From TrEMBL:
Keywords: Amino-acid biosynthesis, ATP-binding, Cytoplasm, Glycosyltransferase, Histidine biosynthesis, Magnesium, Metal-binding, Nucleotide-binding, Transferase. Its main location: cytoplasm. This is ATP phosphoribosyltransferase. The gene is hisG. Catalyzes the condensation of ATP and 5-phosphoribose 1-diphosphate to form N'-(5'-phosphoribosyl)-ATP (PR-ATP). Has a crucial role in the pathway because the rate of histidine biosynthesis seems to be controlled primarily by regulation of HisG enzymatic activity.
Length: 285
């Protein structure tokens, strides 16, 4: 049974568990503090700190793992990226105090001190730009460093920028865009690769279904051309004859939930009846 390293706590852990559950790989643990669990009887989960997952996977202690792309890059270990899980999105940014006079990364002067929980990425970013800075590694709350005189600027994670603004900091440049990723041990054997490919397809089908709905409606045959414009679907709507339907046919399509309100109203305007919308659990193209 392949081992999958998963985050043991925090928002990322909650979203990962939800994704695996939706894919039919229910997390079955003996207790809330259990360090291992069954994933639907198909895989074994091991729960560790998100920042330790790249090391566990790179060393072969787990055949795959889920963690932030920022942590994968900071670890600098050889890993095989399998897929972007599309949640946990954030950015690693350079930020300076509002009154610092630094509005562009070019304004960072030689010898300035940069506080960050990501010293490897920070050093690499400025080295690539030919800027010599002193990196000050911190374990957390990097945004306070400029106010304490520990550093001139920071490199820190942000999703909305609100925490930086609250602490009197402004974004200067983006170092890296991050999200949750499924990564694998680069030297897995063929059997493990096949199992991970199936896992990737299962998780991908859940992600593909999010934000989409399955719509069914009876519409007049004379309106089919207009209906095709309203319901493009994945490959156009599926049209089915309705028994004793007269001049009506049934159309089925996968539609975006974002435009659902307008889509339903457009169908009604074309004479659509019996409109039914349902959620989709998994979608495999």
């Amino acid at each position: 049974m392949l081992k999958i390293a998963l985050p043991n706590k925090g928002r990322l852990s909650e979203e990962v568990r939800e994704l695996f559950n939706d894919a039919g790989l229910e997390v079955r643990a003996r207790g809330e503090r259990a360090l291992t669990a069954s994933l639907g009887g198909e895989f074994e989960a091991i729960f560790v700190r998100a920042q330790d997952i790249p090391e566990f996977v790179a060393d072969g202690a787990a055949q795959a793992g889920v963690t932030g792309w920022d942590l994968v890059n900071e670890a600098g270990r050889e890993l095989e990226p399998l897929m972007d899980l599309e949640f946990g999105r954030c950015r690693l940014v350079v930020a300076a105090r509002d009154e610092s006079g630094i509005s562009r990364v070019e304004d960072v002067k030689e010898g300035m001190r940069v506080a960050s929980c990501f010293p490897r990425l920070t050093q690499a970013f400025f080295q690539q730009r030919g800027q010599k800075v002193t990196v000050v590694p911190v374990s957390g709350a990097a945004e306070i460093a400029p106010h304490l005189g520990i550093a001139d600027i920071v490199v820190d994670l942000t999703s909305t920028g609100s925490t930086l603004k609250m602490n009197g900091l402004k974004e200067v440049a983006t170092v890296l865009e991050s999200s949750a990723r499924l990564v694998a041990y680069p030297r897995n054997d063929s059997e493990a690769r096949r199992a991970l490919e199936e896992l990737t397809q299962a998780l991908g089908s859940v992600l593909a279904a999010r934000g989409r709905r399955y719509l069914m409606a009876n519409v007049p045959k004379t309106s089919l051309e207009q209906v095709r414009e309203v319901l493009p679907g994945l490959n156009g709507p599926t049209v089915v004859d309705v028994m004793n339907g007269g001049h009506f046919v049934a159309v089925h399509a996968v539609v975006s939930s974002r435009n659902l309100y307008r889509t339903v109203n457009a169908l009604k305007a074309l004479g659509g009846q019996g409109i039914l919308v349902t959620r989709i659990e998994r979608l495999m193209a």
